[in-house]
Design goal:
alpha/beta; eight-stranded parallel β-sheet; 13 helices; 21 strands; 28% helix
């Protein structure tokens, strides 16, 4: 059964604690920040990119980085407060944006009230069943009088027992508040690949009963995405397989890699062609795409592919300017910097390519995708592939779009058996006959052709 929910969206992903230049540690005494007030002033610029969905990283009160939640019912004071965020959401909705929040349900921070009670009262705590695999016969590496499970072994991220009805009541109550007060349109589930599937099924029922078109997307790095994307569970997941294949196709002069993966996922029969997955070139956990590609010129056709392959495309804040950023050995600071108007751009983030040109190119891709239903919902079919050229088709009923990309430094032809007449939506001009079947693609660029 096909699910086209949010297939018409173009996402702008924000990590607010970084963007707003917040202190790395929450002192729990500072006045409410004004980040969302300033971000509201950026909404026109973001909308002008072609974006209609804001995916906002964790906003709940936390101790450090947002993924160590302290209070699900209050906005982190470093960002603002509930009233400021509600005002921001109201304005964003008025401007036509949908809003998706990062939901960190797999674990809490050590400052979460239930864990603090557990530290104080041990086996007598009423919250001893809120966490998984407590062992009172040994200490944790924090010196606690018991041990417990942490996300990926990180003991500052304490794994919740989300199948506990009381835990679900607490978490679902927060979701209901977010839906009521902030009017959110969906959730991105952090660490969905290790989150209880029973919990996700219950969350789906809870959310969809209140808002039928509520969107649930999960962070999944490895595995069969169909374990998560299915009726009654999630609508989408992060497409890490395509993320890697897209940039490696350019860096390694090997378009057979993305061609193979796209055909496997979305061809006939594709294993994931029933629902749009979340397409990204970078995010808060991986190197900025401008620091990943071997040539800055690759950024232009790379964004072109991201906006034309099956999926819901995403822009990670600042990457529309081609900013740099690499993951550190012990921190993600460079991946999550503050930018104007919140703070001056740090030296490491300075773009190597022309920011104005990249922004303009992204706008052009976004406009084409907004206008062409075949790019939002269409089938996928490979037409031709070589190491450095790649051509595929998107088709929705009578709408037919053909995309052709070239990663070489000079104009190249890609040979195919297409017939009819095609208009180049990106570059202008029409192609038919031999000129179409020996299609010339400019150096390190892309053509987006629509059949007339």
């Amino acid at each position: 059964m096909e699910n086209f929910l949010f297939s018409d969206k173009i996402t702008y992903h924000i990590y607010p604690l970084g963007l707003f230049n917040c202190p790395q540690n929450n002192n729990f005494t500072c006045p409410a920040g004004n980040g969302f007030d300033l971000l509201q002033g950026e909404l026109e610029r973001i909308k002008d990119l072609g974006v209609n969905l804001l995916y906002i990283g964790p906003i709940c009160e936390s101790s450090k980085h947002g993924y160590d939640t302290l209070d699900y019912y209050h906005v982190d004071r470093r960002l603002g407060n509930n009233e400021k965020f509600a005002s921001f959401c109201n304005r964003a909705h008025e401007m036509g944006f949908s809003i998706v929040l990062d939901a960190v349900f797999n674990h809490t921070g050590r400052d979460f009230f239930a864990f603090k009670d557990l530290l104080q009262n041990g086996q007598n705590s009423p919250y001893k069943d809120w966490y998984l695999n407590l062992h009172f016969d040994r200490q944790s590496n924090y010196g606690d009088p018991f041990d417990y499970d942490g996300w990926a072994g990180c003991k500052d991220l304490v794994k919740l027992n989300v199948d506990n009805p009381q835990v679900q009541e607490h978490l679902f109550g927060a979701v209901e508040m977010w839906m009521k007060d902030f009017k959110i349109d969906g959730l991105r589930l952090d660490a969905a690949d290790v989150l209880s599937k029973n919990f996700m099924d219950n969350l789906n029922r809870f959310c969809k009963s209140r808002k039928q078109d509520f969107w649930l997307m999960g962070e999944v790095v490895h595995g069969d995405y169909n374990d998560w994307v299915r009726p009654g569970r999630l609508d989408s997941v992060t497409n890490y397989q395509i993320y890697t294949a897209l940039y490696s196709g350019f860096n390694d002069a090997n378009f057979f890699d993305p061609a193979f993966n796209l055909n496997r996922e979305f061809g006939d029969p594709g294993i994931y062609n029933h629902s749009p997955l979340y397409t990204f070139l970078d995010n808060h956990d991986v190197n900025r795409i401008a620091s990943t590609v071997k040539k800055s010129e690759f950024l232009y056709p790379l964004y072109g592919l991201a906006f034309t392959i099956p999926g819901i495309p995403s822009i990670y804040y600042g990457s529309e300017f081609g900013i740099q950023g690499k993951r550190g050995q012990y921190d993600d600071f460079q991946l999550r910097p503050s930018l104007p108007p919140f703070a001056p751009m740090p030296d490491f983030a300075k773009p190597q390519t022309d920011p104005n040109v990249l922004v303009d190119v992204i706008k052009r891709f976004a406009k084409i995708r907004q206008n062409e239903v075949a790019l939002q919902k269409g089938s996928y079919k490979q037409i031709a592939v070589t190491n450095t050229q790649f051509m595929f088709e998107r088709k929705y009923y009578n709408d037919q779009i053909v995309i052709a990309v070239n990663s070489e430094d000079s104009e190249k032809s890609i040979y195919n058996n297409l017939d009819g007449t095609y208009e180049d939506l990106l570059n202008g001009g029409t192609f038919s006959g031999k000129e179409l079947q020996e299609l010339k693609i400019p150096a390190i660029w892309i053509r987006i052709l629509k059949k007339k």
